[in-house]
Amino acid sequence: MLEISTSILTVEKENAAKTFYDLETAGTDYYHIDVMDGKFVEKNTEEIMYEYANIIKQISNLPLDVHLMVENVKENIERYIPFSPSIITFHYEACKNNKEILDLIKLIKENNIKPAISIKPETSLEKIKEFLALIHMVLIMTVEPGKGGQKLIPKTVEKVKELKQYLKENNLETYIEVDGGINKETINMVKEAGIDIAVAGSAIISAQDFKKAIKELR
């Protein structure tokens, strides 16, 4: 069954703890932590996301799905290790070379966390194929990273299909996650393309009923 990772990017600070509790009771599978540094992407959410991760770890046992949209990947991985997230995703585009990517995968694995690589809409799958056997998941961005509320870019759905086919042909059990513009209008096309996890933010957070919103996405 499709898993839902709820992006907490737009959660209001004054209602944060209650919102996180409500998301858990509504049945989300993960809390998606969007860490942005104001350099790799325009927005800076470093402090608020760290604060939110801290609150979540005190009130919930649900896994954290940490998505690093940052230039300094290693420093941010080390910052989130104490929270014992389930997954840490870093961007292929933030890395200088393949050695750095391999070192980051190793660092994440050494701390019993599942490593994942994300690619932007314009980045070819060819760039990450050699790492697929070493990672838990690929996060395909279906919008340009860094801004909430964007519309899904249709050609990214073809990329999901291509990746799914490649994984099947090569007997790889790597998961596929998508992030950006996911709502009840777009969910079916990415489901049919073969995703395992969908990140949804405003489609859930702005809904009157979190449980209903999550159920509709599933």
Would you kindly provide a written description of the structure presented here, covering whatever features stand out?
This protein has 218 residues and is α/β, with parallel strands linked by helices. The chain has a single domain, classed as Aldolase class I (TIM Barrel). An 8-stranded parallel beta barrel has the order 1-2-3-4-5-6-7-8, surrounded by 4 helices. Helix 1 crosses helix 8. The model has no long low-confidence stretch (mean pLDDT 96).
Superfamily (CATH H level) name: Aldolase class I
Strand coverage percent: 15-25%
Q: How is the CATH topology named?
A: TIM Barrel
Describe the main β-sheet briefly. 8 strands, parallel, barrel
Overall residue-averaged pLDDT value: 96
Global Rg? 16 Å
Task: List segments where confidence is low: pLDDT < 50 over at least 5 consecutive residues.
Answer: none
The overall strand count is 8
Strand order of the largest sheet: 1-2-3-4-5-6-7-8
Count of DSSP-assigned helices: 8
- Helix/strand-derived category reads alpha/beta
Q: What's the CATH class, please? A: Alpha Beta
How helix-rich are the residues, as a percent range?
25-40%
- Gross morphology is globular
Helix and strand string, N-terminal first?
EHEHEHEHEEHEHEHH
How many structural domains? 1
N/C terminus separation:
8 Å
The CATH architecture can be given as Alpha-Beta Barrel
